[in-house]
Amino acid sequence: MLIALILGYTIVKGELVTAGFYIALPFILGYLIWLFNDPKVGLLSVLHFSFLANGMSRFVPGNIPWGLIIDALLILTVLATIFKVNKEDSKKMNNPIFFIMFVWFLYTMVQVVNPEAKSKEAWFYAVRGVSLYLIQMIPLILILMNKKEDMDTVIKIWFMWSLISAFYGFKMDILGVTAGERKWLDDGGKVTHEIQGRLRIFSFYSDAGQFGAAMAHTTLSAFLMALGPYTTKEKRFYWFLTAVCFWGYALSGSRGPLFVIAAGGFLYLFLIGNFRILITGAAIGGILFGILKFTHIGDTNYQIHRMRTGLDPNDASLQVRIENQKKLAVYLATRPLGGGIGSGGSWGARFSPGSFLSEVALDSWYVKIWVETGVVGLILHLITLILVLIIGCLKVYKLRDPGLKQKVIALTCGYFGIMMASYGNQILGQMPTGSVIYFSMVYMFLCTTWDEEIYQEKQAQLALETPEEEPKRVVVRIS
Prior knowledge:
Order of helices and strands: HHHHHHHHEEHHHHHHHHHH
Structural class: mainly alpha
Distance between the termini: 111 Å
């Protein structure tokens, strides 16, 4: 009766929110028990929720910090892993990818005492996407999801959410936006998302730029897998996914993600090592580039026109970015450590309004890193990214299993494409692309171990299937 009185009183005071919490409480407790029994559940939850986190505020009213749910899930997963794993499991962190990224993480931690930083709170919020998610997820993946089957699971989840988000984008284009999405547009989103009477589709992602990059990333990876040695059913699915996500990318009206496909495609031609296909692919790519760059074919189509403007050096938005970078170069000339993480962009506008960096647009991921961590931070960040790419490519060359090799090539090319496109947009640190890239980086480093296991299994199977030769009889005749 006492519990009933307490529940009744708190529900009356808290109304629907409190009642909803009490209804959800058994499910929350059940989930926590499940997570602590199997920490992999938490890591998969992070991957799933990363696709929804940025767009949830447009569907659920109230100032709920949806992004912090990812932080909570990661912390719970880390705690569950600490309690669950043994000493042997912890040795799996002894991998070059962890140490490479740990150096970058340490540098961003030092940034908390950057004398130029205006706000410690801004650092706390902004460092999550810059390095904190990365340094939490990479060891968790190494310990909890280090098998080839885990890679297959991650790819399936990624492709499933890509399909869902693409079809939701089609719905948005055909049927229009919801009340929450309209409010988001009216509150400032329409400045960049309603151009010449056309809506740039953003699905349930943070914005059209992120949606376009995610769609281009999936388009590239699915296309490369469609070329692999898989079953007819699997190939049909990959071709279907390629077509759907490419149209999703086109509807986003974002120009930067074009370089995800272009850069990733170029790396693929390089990795396969076939000179004839390399020349043919380069020729086809050159023709398509020439059509976009030097002709007006298809200009009546809005999507093609938007892609073409991305290659125009006189484009107005590009000129604005160049001017901004010139101003920033002057400001940062005497600040080799930058202005502090969280000092620019939306975090700067929120926590240090009126400062110089808060009023300059940081459209590029690398410009953001340059501004907030200085030229020292930018060089260190580029070294870590390039080092991961080089090691990944070297490991691809060592792979012998064709099915595994094609999937790792798709992940490596996707990683490189996102790297290149991040010059035009802040893609690398955004969810869900960030979470997919973190898994990709780890699997690029683990693939040779799986390849050796597959090779040994095949050799053992071959030995079993090959019949032993009967001993030869030697007949000696004595005359």
